[in-house]
Write a structure and sequence with these properties.
With about 260 residues, this protein is α+β, with helices and mostly antiparallel strands. It has seven helices and eleven strands. It has one domain: Hypothetical Protein Pfu-838710-001 (Beta Barrel), CATH 2.40.320.10. The chain has an eight-stranded antiparallel beta barrel with strand order 2-7-6-5-4-8-9-11, surrounded by five helices. Helix 6 packs across helix 7.
Length: about 260
């Protein structure tokens, strides 16, 4: 069996000798907080092929504190009934995700509001909070204000729902107009029951653009015969870890993913 792409191995890949690096400061023009996202599910072996193609195409890899695959810890909030999950499951086009996220390499933590419009655009707003406020963003006055201005939910009706952790590689195209994130080592934990699950050897690739502009990354994925697949880490993790919740549509999605990984 091929060796799994662990955090340590990701940062020692030979491909990094071919790919130029870009820092967070240099990437400020590629934040894309209001964007169109296109997602794909790949196997770890396919990720290696994609990275090789990206290096030949002149892509940059983001480097933070000397590493190329950075660790993320995310906590999603929801109502006790998990209303945000249910709205997504029921195909509500205009929807919202609320989360806190720590970037372990840089040590920064944010409270984030992620809105999806009925036209498929993603708009993200966030404010920095203290690391110890990850599990209770309501302690932070700026986070409370951000929630009040941009959400119909109140702090009183929100509780921790799902913890996700993963390693992320971020690639930037040569013209600095598009970002591609590659999430690996995805692990999920129900924040309420502590049940843990994962899908082995799965990677989620997300291309983030300001609009439907030409994309070399999309062409490379097409050449690999990999089609886009709408997928949510929050919904996947909730489906895997929460017993008894309505999940018919997402259960079918997981079956589709497993089939794609084992093709």
């Amino acid at each position: 069996m091929t060796q799994s792409l662990t955090y340590d191995r990701l940062n020692k890949l030979d491909v990094w000798h071919e790919m130029p690096t870009i820092t967070l400061d240099e990437m400020r023009s590629v934040k894309l907080m209001n964007r169109i996202d296109t997602k794909y599910v790949l196997s770890e072996e396919e990720v290696l092929r994609l990275l090789g193609s990206a290096a030949k195409a002149g892509y940059f890899v983001q480097i933070t504190e000397g590493v190329r695959a950075c660790r993320y810890l995310t906590l999603y909030y929801d109502t006790p009934e998990r209303e945000m999950f249910t709205l997504h499951h029921n195909r509500k086009l205009t929807r919202q995700k609320l989360r806190t996220r720590t970037y372990l390499e840089s040590g920064t933590t944010f409270f984030e509001i992620k809105n999806k419009s009925n036209r498929g655009r993603t708009k993200k707003r966030r404010t920095e909070i203290k690391a110890e406020e990850l599990m209770c963003f309501a302690q932070n006055s700026e986070a409370r204000e951000l929630l009040t201005r941009n959400s119909r939910y109140t702090t009183a009706e929100l509780t921790p729902a799902l913890v996700t952790s993963f390693s992320r590689i971020t690639l930037v195209n040569p013209t600095l107009t598009e970002r591609t994130t590659i999430d690996l080592e995805l692990k999920y934990e129900d924040a309420r029951t502590k049940r843990k699950e994962s899908i082995e050897r799965m990677a989620i690739v997300e291309i983030k653009q300001d609009g439907n502009t030409p994309s070399t990354m999309k062409l490379m994925l097409r050449d690999m015969h990999i089609a886009p697949l709408k997928v949510s880490k929050y919904c996947l993790g909730t489906t895997l870890t929460v017993e008894g919740i309505k999940h018919n549509r997402f259960k079918a999605k997981i079956q589709q993913i497993n089939k794609r990984l084992n093709r």
